[in-house]
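Hello,

Following up on my earlier ticket. Below are the two sequence lines again, exactly as submitted.
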Amino acid sequence: MLVHIDQDKCCGAGHCVVAAPEVFDQRDEDGIVLLLDARPPADLHQAVQDAAAVCPAAAIRLDLA
Amino acid sequence: MATAAQTPRFTHPAARGACPFAPPPVYRQAQQDEPISRVSLWDGAPSWLVTRHEDVKAVLSDPRFSSDSARPGFPFISAGARQLSAGRPTFIRMDDPEHARLRRMLTGEFMIKKVEALRPEIQRIADDLLDRMTTGRTGADLVREFALPLPSLVICLLLGVPYRDHDFFQECSRVLLHRDSTAEEVAAAQQRLGDYLCALTDSKRAEPDDGILSRLVARGELDTAEIGVMARLLLVAGHETTANMTAMSVLALLRNPDQLDHLRRHPESVTGAVEELLRYLTIVHSGLTRVATEDVELGGVRIRAGEGVICMINTANRDAAEFPDGDELDVTRDARRHLAFGFGVHQCLGQPLARLELQIALDTVLRRLPGLRLAVPFEEVRFRNEMLVYGVHELPIAW
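Thanks for your patience. The regenerated structure is below:
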């Protein structure tokens, strides 16, 4: 799994940080998404998919190859 | 294909049916047989009504549906709601990129780790309120003594607004959110609250504190009037919604004793229970409004540029296609895909704070009041049908 984020789209709702804190964080100054791990281990894949599904701004894209 | 020429099904907002927790039956009926339908509004204006989870998500995440209430055709729920959008708009009534520029001045204030750091302080406030409510007594109005002051104290603390002024700003807020308020009443309340918040902002210029208002002043990007408008949005949104969700959640649990019992036996499940209560209750019951900026085809319907659209997040949150048995409250359900905070780039900015407040409020009430019960017959509870944010006016409880 390869994770892409789009900081321009991000609206800082924070769902991704709740769903997968090992993979996503928020920038201190404005709460915009930060990617901690672009190739998360398999045991986090479901959590990352949950994060992408609930992102209101479609700011997370996953390559599932 | 359906078009705007259709006759309106009913006037929105429609009256509720027998269950005060459920959306009015006409909306559920529309969801069944005409999920994107035509309705008329208080002033006779027509609008599209969107009722399914999938379609509501599609509208709220599509930039062709504008939040800019100054655009012709924008649908308003009431005369007061139209007045609320007049004058200087808040960023919830703007589109990107201007919306994003202003919203991003606040997203850092409500990010997960910052909100989580408030937990001990919010817990202390909740405990103080319950100490005061319960000492030497066996009953109280949960709204007045706990559900309203808790988020009100918290948002005052965050903004740097003196809580001693709560009677004033709660009364302004009541007028702003009352469906029967006239345009004049809303304009007057807006003016009074705006003047108050602008004066407060100026005082932060002279004597900065650790609150959001002072930080907005320090950024130097907004003038006093712009900060005042933002402060009004945060102050009103910051306590009305959580207050009503708290009281309605307690009432819904009292009416579903098996769910209450589950939560009591599994206090660690409060996080998921709050999501399910947000789904089940969806207190923004008049819908989220948009206007199409170009022709859009949605679910077999052609919505033309300039036509209004109302997204019914409460019916969407009971859509059987997304939530089987959606009329049942089930605190063990995975309800995270609910739309109670909206969807798209306008999704509620303060939702991490709202979630934390609700988790603490429910956990604290259930833990500290083991004998909690309704002090009046359920039929006597007065629901806020006439307010833009649904809830109960009072919740008389005993313990």
